[in-house]
Amino acid sequence: WGALALVRSGRVVALVGMVGNAVALGGWVVAKTSGIPFIEGLDVAEAVQTTDGLAAGLALASVVGAAISLRGSAWAVPPLPVSALAVTVLAFPGLLAAGSHAHAGADDHGDEVATADDGHADGHAEDDTAAVAEASNAASSHGGSHAEAVPYDPELPIDLSGVEGVTAKQQAAAENIVADTLRGLPQWADPAVAEAAGFRTIGDGGTGIEHLVNPAFMANPTILDPDEPESLVYDTSDGGRRLVAAMYMVEKGTPLEAVPDIGGNLMQWHTHTNLCFNAEGRVAGITNADGNCPAELAKPVPTPMIHVWIESHPCGPFAALEGIGGGDIPTGEERLCDSAHGA
Q1: How many domains in the chain?
Q2: pTM flag (> 0.70)
Q3: Domain assignment present for 151
Q4: What range does the domain containing 322 cover?
Q5: Is residue 154 part of a domain?
Q6: pLDDT tens, 220-243?
């Protein structure tokens, strides 16, 4: 428009120039104050810089000049050489400053660019990245986490790293199980709600820990699901019932050696083969030296199970109970106590 205005005058040219520059000036003001969300690169407000400030000044001057022309003002209009010189004087500093113009966020990436340049200086950046990735994959495939273990705290982000022999995949799976349990298990905090859904006690509340089992959930194929946990664990040491863990089970009769290896050394399943139950499904005794229950009691089909605690525990989030309550573990295994994540 400026070039056209220099060689051709008239109300139409003046009107086009005034409207066009007014729109550009308005857009500049919006970009500098709040950003233009639908234009990439202008969606974040920026400080006024030399280059765009001079451009806005030229646009404003064009609007004023065009308005004067439309009004037919008698003010003296500077001759063409003088006008051209004025424009050049205004534009020249902007050209010098253009090379140093920076957009919002440029400072955030400055160090990254420098680092990238250094990495490519000798042509080995890609090779180094590949080597790091290969080493990381090798560590995962051979197991063994070298990160420092931190105590399990349900109030903090779950971090079960630091256990020798546990792969990254196993760690992630175990952490997901804990996270799902923390999310879903509190729906059973009220024992009345649990009992209404079919849970019933096995009568062990006098030990300080009480288990409520759900026969329907035990019979379905779902496992490790806090919405359908096979058993709930309540702390009864203070006379009430406080939900502290889920006790998940797999299908009845599954051998311990056949349980899914999900969390590696973080998770150890167990069974109970020494408990005797009465007709109401309550623990009423233990087996004799021959492993048998009294005639009036029954020994249930061995079923692998595992606790997932929603409170801190000295042996970590998958700890079994102590003593006889800990049940049986696979032959040849040492009973695990994840003290690295204990609290």
Answers
A1: 3
A2: no
A3: no
A4: 168-341
A5: no
A6: 999 999 999 999 999 999 999 999
